[in-house]
Amino acid sequence: MERILEVKDLHVSFHTYAGEVQAVRGVNFHVNKGEAVAIVGESGCGKSVTSQTIMKLIPMPPGEIKKGQILFQGDDLVKKSNKEMESIRGKDIGMIFQDPMTSLNPTMTIGNQIMEGLIKHQNMSKAAAKTRAVELLEIVGIPQPDRRVNQYPHEFSGGMRQRAMIAISLACSPKLLIADEPTTALDVTIQAQILDLMKDLQKKMGTSIILITHDLGVVAEMCDRVVVMYAGKVIEEGTVDEIFYNPQHPYTKGLLRSVPRLDLDRDEPLTPIFGTPPDLLRPPVGCGFTARCENAMRVCQEIDPELNDVNGPSHRAACWLQHPLAQGRS
Amino acid sequence: MFRYLGKRILFMAISLFLIVTSTFFLMHAIPGGPFTSEKKVPEEIKKALEAKYGLDKPLFEQYTDYLVDVIQWDLGPSFTEKSSTVNDMINRGFPVSAHLGLQAIAIAVFGGITLGVIAALKHNKWQDYTGMIIAVLGLSVPSFILATFYQYVFSIELGWFPIAKWESFEYTVLPSLALAASPLAFIARLTRSNMIEVLGQDYIKTAKSKGLSSFVITVKHAIRNALLPVITYLGPLIANVLTGSFVIERIFGIPGLGREFVLSISNRDYTVIMGTTVFYSILLVVLVLLVDLAYTFVDPRIKLAGGGKE
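Output (structure tokens, whole complex):
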């Protein structure tokens, strides 16, 4: 299968007054053409930084890409200049942000905000871009698009704004869409509508999607594969079925145990993962999850495990429990 | 819209009435009168003078008389400048002060916004520090020092501009620059802090994710959102600057209106005090209204007539 995006050994740090925060510490994953990949993990695990680094949207300084490659259709984005990135952003890679209330410019009409990218990347005339903007609003399910196109964001509801945001990000039919927690700021019924819309558009347009979320329900509904991140690293990846039915890393297992399920006994309490993630100003030498892991061994504190195949090449986990010597312990 | 304007104009009339009333009675509460400083005026002559100007009537009657005159835009004769009325003084001085003021405002607005935007874009770099040093100097150096400094450097040493008087365009350059310094500095600081805030907003990230260049992002997305507080400041600033500056007009020998404000008070020149105050107040309330109207063009979220929800 053709890989549209491949992130290799990506390290991103932020230089702050307190010191260097190693937000992303060697992330590897890939996205195939037409596939939806979820990146899950708790707040501060580096998932948003990873996604914004792909677009090179992190402020530099204080941010810095220390090491690694981001291969988009074979080209390394890390090496691209800002000017070169401008012709990729919006055209080849689109992005949807978390909060539709703040991610639209309040003093510009929705239409103009959609048209900007079209005029820049597709050399459209103003009139043609406007026609296309109306079409896009229609596609994302906004009623009366020819009237709505001239309205300002404050005249839209939250769900409508996120639909408009999707129209903006899909305006130039990008090959990859990065959705950074697109449903977190919306209420549940609207969440479902937005997810349906994204799924529908993915099918129609064949766009690959990276979905960043901490909502495992969203993952199950939308995605083909899952990448689980913890403390700036990928600790497990696999297909949705592999991750949900056969999780290998204790952190993934913990995540799944903390989600309510319809098929389990209702009297059984949910089990949270106790403790907090490590301080990335001074990241641990060994596995980042050691301090919170029930199965921690001495080796976990000293040597960081690598991602290894688990029953087949699509499912990989970074945990010493996968080591042949540890078999039978968990 | 028309209902809103009507309401606003009614409120403007009420505030002007209150200003006139309080100034009138405060002014008369100050000891002394317009003829106190004249030497040895015989009692009969003083009586005659007071009768001529109506100062012998009860205070309340003087007040109602003045109100009637003011509504007809008759501001009365000046007590100290016997040959001219207050209307004459304003007609003579205001065009000069307004000319100087408009030039100063143009410099302050363009210079201030440019400086502020550059400082914000180059946040924490040398351009930012330089811009803000200029701004702090502009705010903290008093205008009379700046004005004499300009006269020394540009007139005496370099000979580029005339040192004083008010005749042709060259004469207006130095006083305009001197008058613009402090509002320019203020606008620069205001613009910078608002720009920095706006540049950190999510919609700027959205604009970047569309692949727009930083120039387009600054001009189309950032500046407009950063300018609202600057517009708020512009109303009072324009009223203030247009009616002249005592210090600058004195130093450059400019026959403007600023002088009248200050001198009339020490002279107890009742009609001029009232006239200049009324004139300034009218200008101020009109400009505040214009600023409120200008908001609606800059920010679509603001609606007039109480129709807006936000």
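The CA atoms of residues 56 and 85 of chain A lie 8 Å apart.
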